[in-house]
Amino acid sequence: MVPSNDGDDVARMAPELQDDEALAREQARQAHTLMPPEIAAKLPPLYANEGQGEDAVAHLKLFTPWTSWTWYASEYDPAERLCFGVVVGIEREFGYFSLAELEAIRGPAGLRIERHLHWTPKALKECR
């Protein structure tokens, strides 16, 4: 099926495909919600993990589907929408990253940064 812009794509699909399409759209919506409330509630505030270093826990994993860049958040400031954790790109380093900036990034064909929907929290030393 060639997608159209009139919003009726799902209605024109065979009934057996409508559930699959609805599920795929919901998963995409969830993946593009970088910081859902249930994860924000689990992340400690900025500076709460000082001294833990690599033993601090990453509760959130974000990634670019078109490159190898990945962000792991171990602390979060909801007012500033600012995270601290490990960023794996050209190099692996600790640092701060802004959710607003990550949400604004667009890759090829409009791809966006996504949240790993099945991420299991783990120590930053395991995040590579």
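Above is the first protein from milestone M3; the second protein from the same milestone is given next.
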Amino acid sequence: MPDFPEPNVNIKSRAVPLNGREVGPAPWKPPQKVEELYSSTNGNQFASINRPTAGARTQFEYPAPKEGPFQLYSLATPNGFKVSILLEELGIPYDAHVVNIGKGDQFSSGFVAANPNSKIPAAIDFDGPDGKPISLFESGSIMLYLCKKHNRFLGKTALEEQQCMNWLFWQMSGQGPMTGNFGHFMVYAPDNEIGARNYGVARYGMEVQRLADVLDKHLEGRTFMVGDDITIADMACMPWARALFEGYKHKSGVGARQFLSADKYKNIKAWLEILGKRPAIQRGFKVCSGGVPKPWLAQQSSKM
């Protein structure tokens, strides 16, 4: 990482009152270049791998397919769960490869070949269109590709299919990014950035609550998001909704569930409970967890 001038504000000595808003002699103004502020991100849990450039940083190639032509490169995160849940619901053969994003595995040559954007999940279908391999990235794109290829989970009518698209794009553009931004400030941002963290959790926390309210109101009187059966909409939205109840726990012990008062979203809770009973979804939540591609297979092998 190149050396840049120090930021125009000393982040170590700022005065932050109890309400968390910074006090300074003059309003903030941007420096001439963002690079002058890079050092202010030091202390966040991904600081060691954050760079403003793309491309492979290490050489590593993934093994050839074993279980099936579809290869998943992922981790047990809400975005990763979206695709692994769908794969398990489809019941198709596939290989899963754990990508440790904390160690920078997403910047290996093998992963970048699947996704030049170096974000999980990514995939390669060696039996793509016309029988040719195709690289797949962005969780919504991967899900839509799989649903179209196997002609499943897009609703039973043209109307339901479009409703599925509405909610898939809602999830991709709103629910996922906003919840992730909240999670960053809640859990991963530098400890000393009190003012920034208070602003971040308030700004994004409020928006996450609004989005949860949108989903909760939609689910009133419904078992599934679209129609009378599970669809891509349920599988895309469920992991991020689940994170409000089970994820983003600060080391103080305060988690998203308490902080955002998530228990008030009764319809979401009931919907999560119904979906959570499905064996395929239960397996989907285990894919690429604990450093193991499919933990239930490892458990079966240990019993033999």
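Note on the second protein: Strands lie at 70-74, 94-98, 122-125, 134-137.
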